[in-house]
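Private note to self, pasted from the team thread so I don't lose it. C-alpha cells:
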C-alpha cells in the first residue's frame, strides 16, 4: 500500500496504532499482529529506522551489565536468544563474533570479577576469564592483563533486521505508513484520538514507540485531557546523548568485539567489527540539547587516547569519521544509568495507551522481547 493511499482507505476508528517504525516499533507491531490485532505503524520520517535503530553499534548484547531484574537485564537476555533464532529463521545477516571486556590495570581486573557476578545474576552463565597469555594468542593486537570473554555477544545487520520485521508484519496484514507524524493525541471516551497532518483519527490502542520523541509526544497527551490523560509525573525527563563513531580503514585488527571496562554513564569507546570485516570505534558520550547528527572531528584526540589504552598500535591516520547517533537517556551527566520505562494503564491510568521511554542500548537486542512485553501489557 502506498503512503498516499492510506488515509482514504482506513476507517475513522482504528484498532491499534504504533507510533514509530524503528526496530522496536516494528517488533511491537509484529507481535501485536501475530496476536490477532489490526495494526498500523505510523512513521514520521520518509524511511523506517532512520534514527537510533540505524545509528548504533549493531551489537547483539548478552545482558551482562544491567541491574538484576531490571527491564534491561530481563528483556536483553530474553531478546538475545529470540533475536539469534529470528535472524537464522529469516535469513538476516548476523554473527556470534564474541566480545572481550579487557582489563588494562589492576583496578579494571577487580571490576571484571564484579561484572561476571552481575552477569550471573542476570542469567548470563557463559562468561569465562581469559589470561594475559591467552589474550596474546587470540587477540595479539590487544594489550591486556586479563579479560572476560562473552561468547554469546554478536553483531547484526540492523537494516536487514528491520526489513525482515516489516515484511513479516505486513504479511500478517499490518501496514507501515511513512511521512505520517502523529500529533494532538487526546484521550476520548472510546480510546484515543490523534491527527496525522490535517486528518483526525481514533484508535482503541496507541503504543508510543517514538524513540527520541516519545517524551515529547507523551507530554502533549496530558496537556488537554478532559477524559483524563496520563499524569505528568509519570513521564520521565529526557536527556540526549550524542555519540561519534570512527571507521578504521582496512581489515579489522580484531577477531572479537573489544570493550574496555565500563566507567561513567556508558560502555566506553569500544571496537566493533561489521559483517564485512572492518572495524569501527565508538561511541563517546556528548550531552546534547537537540537531535543533531553533525560530526565534530575535534573529538578525535579523545578517541585516540582511549583506544590506545587497549590497542597501542593504533594508526590514528586510519581513523575516519563514520557517523553519529543520539540516544534517548533517562539519566543525566553524573547520574546512575536508568532502566527502560514501559508504562501501561497500571502506571498512568489510560486504557489502551503504552508509553516507551529511554529505549536505548540494549533496545536493538531486546526488540523482540519488548514486542512480547507490550503485547502482554495490552492483553
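Design output:
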Amino acid at each position: 500500500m502506498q503512503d498516499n493511499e492510506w488515509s482514504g482507505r482506513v476507517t475513522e476508528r482504528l484498532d491499534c496504532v504504533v507510533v514509530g517504525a524503528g526496530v522496536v516499533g516494528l517488533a511491537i507491531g509484529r507481535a501485536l499482529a501475530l496476536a490477532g490485532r489490526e495494526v498500523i505503524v505510523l512513521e514520521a520520517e520518509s524511511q523506517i529506522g532512520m534514527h537510533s535503530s540505524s545509528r548504533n553499534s549493531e551489537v547483539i548484547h548478552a545482558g551482562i551489565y544491567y541491574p538484576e531484574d531490571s527491564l534491561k537485564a530481563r528483556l536483553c537476555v530474553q531478546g538475545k536468544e529470540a533475536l539469534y533464532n529470528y535472524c537464522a529463521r529469516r535469513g538476516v545477516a548476523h554473527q556470534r563474533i564474541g566480545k572481550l571486556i579487557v582489563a588494562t590495570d589492576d583496578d579494571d581486573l577487580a571490576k571484571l570479577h564484579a561484572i561476571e557476578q552481575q552477569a550471573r545474576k542476570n542469567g548470563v552463565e557463559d562468561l569465562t576469564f581469559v589470561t594475559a597469555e591467552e589474550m596474546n594468542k587470540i587477540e595479539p593486537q590487544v594489550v591486556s592483563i586479563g579479560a572476560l570473554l562473552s561468547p554469546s555477544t554478536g553483531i547484526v545487520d540492523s537494516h536487514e533486521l528491520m526489513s525482515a520485521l516489516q515484511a513479516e508484519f505486513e504479511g500478517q496484514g499490518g501496514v507501515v505508513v511513512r511521512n505520517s507524524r502523529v500529533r494532538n493525541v487526546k484521550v476520548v471516551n472510546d480510546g484515543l484520538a490523534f491527527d496525522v497532518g490535517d486528518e483526525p483519527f481514533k484508535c482503541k490502542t496507541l503504543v508510543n514507540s517514538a524513540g527520541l520523541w516519545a517524551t515529547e509526544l507523551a507530554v502533549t497527551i496530558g496537556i488537554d485531557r478532559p477524559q483524563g490523560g496520563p499524569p505528568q509525573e509519570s513521564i520521565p525527563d529526557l536527556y540526549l546523548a550524542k555519540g561519534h563513531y570512527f571507521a578504521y580503514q582496512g581489515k579489522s585488527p580484531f577477531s572479537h568485539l573489544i570493550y574496555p571496562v565500563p566507567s561513567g554513564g556508558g560502555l566506553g569507546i569500544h571496537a566493533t567489527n561489521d559483517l564485512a570485516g572492518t572495524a569501527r570505534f565508538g561511541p563517546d558520550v556528548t550531552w546534547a540539547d537537540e537531535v543533531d547528527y553533525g560530526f565534530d572531528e575535534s573529538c578525535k584526540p579523545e578517541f585516540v587516547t582511549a583506544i590506545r589504552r587497549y590497542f597501542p598500535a593504533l594508526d590514528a591516520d586510519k581513523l575516519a569519521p563514520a557517523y553519529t547517533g543520539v540516544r534517548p537517556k533517562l539519566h543525566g551527566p553524573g547520574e546512575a544509568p536508568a532502566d527502560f520505562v514501559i508504562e501501561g494503564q497500571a502506571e498512568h491510568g489510560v486504557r489502551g495507551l503504552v508509553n516507551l521511554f529511554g529505549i536505548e542500548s540494549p533496545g536493538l537486542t531486546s526488540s523482540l522481547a519488548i514486542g512480547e512485553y507490550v503485547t502482554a501489557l495490552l492483553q
